[in-house]
Amino acid sequence: MSEEDPGPIPIDIVGDFTCPFCYLGLRLVNAVVGSVPGLAVDIRWYPYQIDPRMPPGGMLRFEYLSLRHGAEKTQAMFSKAQAEAQAFGFEFAFDKIKRQPNTLQAHRLARFAYNFGMQTQVVERLFQGFFLQGLDIEDRGVLITIAAKARLDPAAVEEFLNGSDDVPGLRQEIEDIRAAGVDEVPRFTFAGKQDIIGLKPAEVFADALFNSIPEG
Q1: pTM over 0.90
Q2: Given CA atoms 62, 64, 65, 71 in this order, what sign does their dihedral have?
């Protein structure tokens, strides 16, 4: 690669698929990147589990949120997320979500999709499935359908999900990310040098992006 062409700007995102602000953050990054015609970026998703103790199969959504946050805090969080979503022209379908999943399987799929250059598309569809359709993104059939819509081979995805060789490595990656001091998501890193933690105004993301563009 020539000095004149440093390649796409890497943007690393750490998040979890049950975090509405992670979805909003991804939407915001895409909007900011899209405002710069011709700019090449390489968005990479890194796994985080807000509740790594969530049992396989998940829990009833209302029961889980009541235990973890309480009704008042949960409603305040939903209201804030909904207001932010409306700025992007959509609404969260919180009422459609019946179960709070363990997100390990969804992170497995996102990691698998990276090998085929389809991670961003799969991550977007996982968020859409959970927050806009109320799908159980722990369910293997749902994950295969999401993968197929992102143009991944459903047979290859099914074979992958039926295995488990990747699971120890994925769990270790999640533990390493926590051990590195990540205790709040979403977290964005532009070109390996500028971190943004949480959902911030668009100008903050734009500044981080422009500061990541090599001069000359």
Answers
A1: yes
A2: positive
